[in-house]
Structure formats: structure tokens, C-alpha cells
Amino acid sequence: MRVEELIIDGFKSYSTRTVVSHWDPQFNAITGLNGSGKSNILDAICFVLGIASMATVRASNLQDLIYKRGQAGVTKASVTIVFNNSQKDRSPIGFENIAKISVTRQITLGGASKYLINGHRAQQQAVLQLFQSVQLNINNPNFLIMQGKITKVLNMKPKEILALIEEASGTRMFEDRRQKAEKTMLKKDVKLLEIKSILEEEVEPKLRRFEHDKDIYLQFQNIQMQMERLEQIVAAHDYTISNNELVKNTEIIDSNKKKKAAVKEALKEIENEIIDINTRLNQVTIKRDDILKKNEKTKKEYTEKLTALNSTSTRLKTSIQIQKKNLEKENKSCVDLKKGIKNKKVLFEEKSKALVSEASKEKILEADVRSLKEELENKKELLSSLQASGSSPTGYINQINRLKRELNDHNMNLKKDELKINSNNIEIENNNVQIKEFDNTVKLYEQTLKELENEQNEIQMQLRMENFDENKYKQLKENETNMQRESKKLSTQIESWKRKLYNLDFQYDHKNVNFEPQFIKGVAATLFDINQENMDKAQALQVCAGGKLFNIVVENDSVAADLLENGNLKKRVTIIPLNKISARTIKHDVIVKAKDISGYPHKVDLALNLIEFDNDVAKAMQFIFGSALICESADIAKKITFHPEIRTKSITLEGDVYDPEGTLSGGSRNNNSNILEQTQIFNKLLKEYKDLQNDLENCQRELKVLDISRSKFLPLINKNKMILNKTQQIKDEMKSSYFSVLTSRNIELRNDNDHIQTNIDKLESLIKITRGSIKSTEDDLRNFEQNKDGSLDKLKNEIKAITKTLSTKEQEYDAVSELVEELNIDKERLIEEISADQEELESLKLSIKETNSSISISEKNLLESQKEIDLLKQQSLDDNMENKIIEDEYAKLTDLVNTKMNEKNKMPALIKELQETIDECYESNRSLDEKLDQLVNEFEWLETDKPRVSKLLKDSEDIVLEQSKANLKKLKESHNSLKNRVNPNVITMIESVLKREKALRTMISTIEADKQKIQETIETLNQHKIDALMKTYEKVTVDFGDIFSELLPNSHAKLVILPNSNITDGLEVKVKLGSIWKESLVELSGGQRSLVALSLILALLQFKPAPMYILDEVDAALDLSHTQNIGHLIKTKFKGSQFIVVSLKEGMFTNANRVFRTRFQDGTSTVNIMT
């Protein structure tokens, strides 16, 4: 950071705004006459840098800095310095990204002073920190060397020289901080003693005195808390117990009132029911007598018919068994015959193939034997003739003649065959001419066949499009018949069960009512199913449902009202409208709890969970089965029914009912105890019948669709058959026509030509062989004429060889002939056997067919007989069932009358018992109300703060109330005895003293910790100070010697540590002139001493250079040559910093890069640039 522009306005001798710009970044000199304002420029720079010492700027106060102290109309002084901040590494902290920094300081006559940084107002401390961060500390300015500083350095003592080194190294700041830390430590020691004295003399005695009072107070407070807590708990328990008893009594009253009303209502209903039952009983008695008379008459008829039918059935079964055994034997024989025929045919084929092969071998061997015989005969004849004629070749000549005759025969036969082929070819050509005449007729036939074929293809396509399956149609027809038969059978059974379960037979007048039939859901017993695995619980479920089992379930109350008013009902019924019933079921968590309590979760369940039903009747099922648990044993039922968390009606598998109110019902059951099981059978029949009807409807619907397809399919089938017949007729006509005869004749002629051609090929081969034999014989004749004896021997050898070969061939031929004969015999035998087996097989098949037919007839007769038996049994069963039903109904009604009478007799006593319980509960409630009022008056929160009561009860679940009341009494006695001895303010007082003690001890700890930290800091600072001083000393002493040598050639200077001391005791200057070290600076001249001082100052400046240095006439005591050396030294050695030098000597400013000249004119100073 360096000065780029200086603006002075109203400061000292500069009355008007003066701008000094174009400062050189390295070396600037200011010159001018005395009093022209040179030093005022330096004062202006120091003024902006925040100088506090007015003596440095040659003023007594700030008003002296204003032009003529404000008496010339100028009332304020302002100086602005514009710094170039392009060197980022040397920028002030926080200004690294600002290229130029403008700092302004203004003062007014009143003494007000303000600073501006880049046009914005700033605090003086911010400005000082800005400059201090770049080593421009104006209040300890090592960068500012004024006129008197040279003299001061000359007179400095070792400690003062050390202070210069400390200032340069920055350790001066360490020393200041160390001194401040030591002063702080002294203050803390005093404070520490003061705090300890307070603790020992004042705080600790008070604490000891208060501790005793505290123990008594805490004991009192603890007793009071226990007493209050126990009072609240006892009150909460008394209140809750009384409240629960009150609620329980109220519930008992309400329950007994309802029970009383219900018992009265039930008494009325029972009386009405007894009247109805007696009326029904009289009707049933009359009906039972009629049925018994009728059944006695028909029973004998059923028995006689059943005996006859059973006899017929037994006979038919025996006959069918015998026929099936015979059929089984015949089928086995048939299978064996088929297998034998198949094996014989395979053997026949093998024999035929072997015969063909062996016959072929026989022909070849026969031809070979015949050929060898002829050849042997010819050779023998030749030998005989040759031997008889002596040396005459007659034999050869005869043989040649014979061969020529054979050749002639072959040629003649060849010509005959060729003539035959020619004749056949001519006939074929003639036939072709005649066939050609039939072309139109043939084309007409072929066209007709083509048209028929196209028509047939079209019909086949239509048949495929219809996609009619005749087999499927037949199967559906058969299924329809079977289902209709089964439906009729199920309908008969259902009617029979309806008569037996007359309570399930609900009928009404459909015509008079104003609702759809589906709004009547049906009798409740028919609306649910019981799985087979739950059938053992049927008795319990029946008891659970009770009379509701025969209630009628309807859609809503409107339907119920319409049904009662317009339905013309034949008997009294109870109706359950789904929209009005209150379907209460036991909660799931209660069921889970009951399962847990029982110890056998699988043996306890809600009755509703044991049945299956549709969603539309769910409310009715919940109404009937939702309020009772089914248990597998009486022990489980007792355990869960009377448990305080359950208290729900339970029913055992035997039908015993356990009620939480204390009643138990059960014991022996009447004859209708299995009514629910019978109902399930009836429901199953109904379901089967309904499913069968649905299947039948689906089958009939599918048949209806197929009937439509069949109506289109049958005409197409008939038409297709007609086309096939017509096509066969045309083919038969073509086959029997003259055209067909000629065509067949041509085929025969061509086949004949093929055979003749084969014969011609053989003849040509024989002709070729015969010609070869002739040539060979002629060669033999010539050989004989040349060598008669050799030819005879050769001929004899040939005869021997042929004889031997002939013998072998004859043996082979005989063996093959014998084998062929055997094969022919075997073949004929197999043909006869196969024929006989086939005749026997046909006979067996006919017998099997007859047997099957007989079995079918017998089975049909047996089926009809069995149907008649079943019908008779069913009729007998129906009669018995009707008899049993009426007997069951009679017994049921008798038992019901007795049961109802017993119930009626018990009811007055029950009403009286209920009223007594109600009166007792009223009396108990009056006492409880008084107790509750007393508790609430004493503890209002019992009614207003229910959560508090609940919490108290929960926290004290295990207490014994009576014991708690005794404990409460003892606590009250202890409380009263301590009440007068307690100081109620002791806790506050002791807490106050404890807080003060804690605060004092905290202060002691803090002070001691601070002292330790300060001591450690001082030690650290001392070490850092020594290290920094040594480093600075070593660098400065070297630079000091170099600069002095340059200013005063052949001389040297250095700084040395005092003898027998360390660096902190001080430094002194030693100078060598030539080769002699001077003992003291007194031995030097005034100029030499000034050079020593100036060299030391410049060496200090070179250590950690500041961005700017200000020198005010430091060359005043030097001659011109030394001044010039100093200027040269600044220019060459201090290139990193900006120098602003005030000098009157030409030797100084001639080395400067920029020279400013000041003038004092008309009472004010001005500045001009010289170079």
C-alpha cells in the first residue's frame, strides 16, 4: 500500500485545497525554502494516520492545525490520502479486493474530528487498525524519522538501543502485555484474600447454624407431604369405592327393574303361549290318531310288495353276476384268439417272405442245374463223338450246329415279341382315338365332380363355422335327463323334511303383500350353516338361539308391518326387521381375554364365529348369536362367566347355560334337542336342490343355444351326404362307361408290353450268350484240329469239374426244394388255422354282444325293480317320518306345556325377590350419597380433577385401605408435634447462604485458574520475546554493519550484547575505523556519529519493511558527499517501500525519482512537481 495522491485543505499553511499527485512508488523528495511548508506535508500525512501526539506535528492542540487557527475564515482542516492497494499480499485486513483506499481526516474549530474511509464515516480505532495491519502505527512510528531522532539515537543507553530492537521485532507489545498481566495478578491476589476471609468469618458459621434447622424442617415437610399424599389416596379410594358401589347399586336397580318388567311381560306371554300350545296339542292329538289308523292299513301292503320286489331283485342280481362271469370268460377267449390270429398272421408273413426268398433260390438253382446238365451232356456227347470218330471233329461241328439252331430259335422268338409289341401299340393308338371322342363327356364328368367338390368344401366350411359338437349335444341331453331325475328325487326328500320340520315351513299370501319376495330372507334357522368340524356344538348353538331360531328375518320394518297386516299368516310368528334390530356382540378383546382365562383358547369362542352366513343377514345373526360364548366344558364356562372382566353368558356343548347374574339352566332335553342338526341336513338338501336347479338351468340354456346351431347343422349334414352320394354315383358311371373300358384295356396292353419287353431283353441276352458259345466252340474246334490229345484231356477235366459242380448244385437244389415244400405246407396250414380262428372269433363276438344285451336288459330290469323298492321304502319312510313327526310334535308340545307351567309358577317368587333387592340397593345408595358429599366437601378435586384421581388409584393399586388409614392417623400426630418447632424460612435462608458460598468458591476457582493462565502466558511471552529479539538482533547487526560500511568506506559497525549479560540487559554500538575498534562513540567526529546513528536507523527500517517511510531532514548534520551516499542507498537498497524525504540538500533529492518543491506565497503554501 503506497501513497498515490495527497489532498490538503485548510491544514496549517495550506489555506486552499491543494492536490499533490503523481507520487513515485519508491523515492519521493520534498524541498523548498525554510518556512515554505515542506514539513507541513509530512505533518498532514501523520495527521491522517491518526497521530495523537501534537508535539510530533509541532502543535499544542488540534486548533493549531487549522489555517491561522481559524482566524482567516477557514474553520476546518481536511487531509485526504489516496493509497494504491494493488499489492494484495500487503493489503490491509479486509481490504484485499479494493484497488484504491481513500482515508480522510477532518477537524473543525470546535475540536470535532471525524474519519472517512472510501467516503464512509469510520471510527478512529478502525482507521488505526487499518494502518497498524500494514505496520504504519503512527503512535509508535518506526517508519517516521524526524529531525531530532538522529540526536536521540546518538545519546541512547544500552537499554534504549535494546528498546529499538524490541520495537523493530514487535516484542515491545509482549512487554506491555506482560506488565498488564502482572498488574492483573496483583489485583486478583487481593480479591482472593478478601473472598476467603468472607467465607471463613461469615458464610461457613451461618451454614452450620442453618443445617440443624434444615433437618427439622425437612423432617416436618416430609411428614406433611406423606400425610397429604396419604390423605389424597385414602380419599380417592373411599370416593371411588363409594362411587362404584353407588353405580353398581344403580345398575342392579335398573337391571332388576327391567328384569321385573320382563318377568311380568314373560308371564303374560307364557300364559298366552300355554293357551296356544294347548290348542295346538288338541289338534295334534286328533291328527296323530288319524295317521296311526292310516299307517296300520298301508304297512301290510308295503311289506308284501317289498318282499316280491326284493325276490325279483335278488334273482336279477344273481343272473347278472353269472352273465358277467361268462362275459369275462368270453372276452378273455376273444382277446386270446385275437392275439393268436395276430401271431399267426405275423408267422404267415414270415413264412411267405421266406417262401419267396427260397423259391427264388430254387429257380436259380434249377436253372443252374439244368444249364450244368445241358453243358455236361454236351461235353459228354462231344467227348463220346470225338472218341468214337477217332480224330474227326464231328462232335464240335454237331455242337456248333445245335447252338446255331438255338440262336435261330431265339431270333424267331424275338421277332414274335417285337411283332406283339407293335400290335399292342397299334391297338393302343386306336383306343386313344376312340378315347379322344369321349373328351367332352369326360370333361363334363370332371367339371361336375369339381363343382360337387367345391360345394362340399363350402358346406364343410359352414359346418366348421357353426362349430356344432354332436357329442357335446348328446352329453348335455343325457345330463339334463339325469339332473331332472335327481331334482325330482331331492324335491321329494325336501317335502318330506318340511313335514317333519313344520316350524321351518313359513308361508304367506304373496298376492296381497306390497313387497318383492326377496325382501323375505326366511326362517332364521335356514339362513346359516354349521361346518362339519363345528357340528358337535350344534346343541349349544340351538340353546343360544332359543326361540329366535324360528323367527322370520325380513328386510325392514315396513315389510314386517305389511306381512303381518296383509300376509294372511297361518300361525303366530316373531319377525326380525334388519333395519330396526340392535345387533350387540361381545367385544373382541373380551373374547380374547376369555380365551386366555380359560387356559384353552381353542375350547372357547363366540357363538357367532361358529356359523357361516351371508352379509345381508349379518345383523340378524349377530342379534341371535352375538351375546354368548360356547365352551367345551362346564369348568371353563364357570371360570369365564363369573370372571369380573368377562361377566358374559356361556353355554356348554351339552346345552347348560351359565348366566353372570347367577342363574344356571340346563339338564335333560326334550326330543327336539337335535332340531338344529336336522335343520342343517334340511339346509344342505335345499342348497343341493338350489345348486342342481342352477346347473339344470345352465344346461338347458346351453342346450337352447346348441338347438339353434343344430337346426342349422343338420340340413348341412344331409346336404353333404347327398353330395357324397352323387359324387360316388358319377364315379361309378365313369367306371362302367366304354371310355373306362378302353382306358383299362390300354393299361393292360401297356403292362403286357412291359412283360414282353422284359422277355425281349432276356432273349437278346441269350442271343448274345449263344453267339459267344458258338465262337468259343469254333475256337475249341480249331484248337482240337491243332492238338487233339490235349483237347480231349482238357475236355475230360471240364466234364469232371462240371460233374462235381453239378453234384453240389443238385444237393443245394434238393435242400431248397424240400424247404420250399415245407414252407408251402406251413403256409397252407396257417391259412386254415387263421380262417378257423376268425370264424371262432366272429362267433365269440356275436356271443359277447348277445351277453351284453342280456346283461343290459337285466340291469335295466334290476334298476326299475330297485327304483320301485326305493319308492316303497321312501313311502314307508315318509309314513314313518310323518308318524314320528306327529309323535315328536305331540311330545314336544306336552313337554312345552309342562315347562311353561313350571316357568309360570316360578315367576311370582322371582318378582318378589327382585323387588327386595331393589329396596336394599335404594337404602345403600342413600348412605353412599352422604359419604360422597362429605368427601367432596373436604376434597373438591375428587369431582373436578378426574385424571388426578385415576393417577392416585393407579399409583396405589396394592395398598391396604385400613392400614393406610392407621398410618395417616400416626402421621397427623407427628405433624402436630413438629409444627411449633419449625422455622418455615430456613430453606430460603440456607439456599441464599449456599448460593453465596457457591458463588464465592466459584470466584476463587476462577481467580486461581486465571492466575495460572496469566503465569503460563508470561512465561510463553518471555520465551517468544527472547527468540524474536535474537532473530532481530542478528539481522539488524549485519545490516547495520553493511550500511555503515557503504556510507563510510573502510569502516564497520555492529551491535554487541553487554559483557556477562544476556540480550535482555541491553545492547551497545561498536564502531571500527580502519582496523581499530573504538571503545566509545565519543572518539568519533560529529559527522561519523551521525552516520552511525543513521546507519542503525536504516538497518532497523530494513527489518520488516513498512510500505512507507517518512524522513524529515535526517541529512542536516552531514556533508554533501555523505548526503549523496544516503540518497543512493535509499534508492538502491529500499526498493520494496515508498520513501518520502524532506531535504534541503541537492545530494539527497537528485537521487529521488519524484521531487516536489514548496513555496510560500501570499500567506499560503503551494506545491509543484520538479521532476
UniProtKB/TrEMBL annotation:
Domain SMC hinge: 518-641
Domain of life according to the entry: Eukaryota
GO biological process: cell division; mitotic chromosome condensation; negative regulation of meiotic DNA double-strand break formation; rDNA chromatin condensation; tRNA gene clustering
GO CC annotation: chromosome, centromeric core domain; condensin complex; cytoplasm; euchromatin; kinetochore; nucleolus
Gene Ontology terms for molecular function: ATP binding; ATP hydrolysis activity; chromatin binding; DNA/DNA annealing activity; double-stranded DNA binding; minor groove of adenine-thymine-rich DNA binding
Pfam families the record matches: SMC_hinge, SMC_N
Localization annotation: Nucleus
Coiled coil region boundaries: 253-312, 362-500, 682-709, 746-875, 911-1024
Keywords: ATP-binding, Cell cycle, Cell division, Coiled coil, DNA condensation, Mitosis, Nucleotide-binding, Nucleus
Family, per entry: Belongs to the SMC family. SMC2 subfamily.
Annotated protein name in UniProt: Structural maintenance of chromosomes protein
Organism: Hanseniaspora guilliermondii
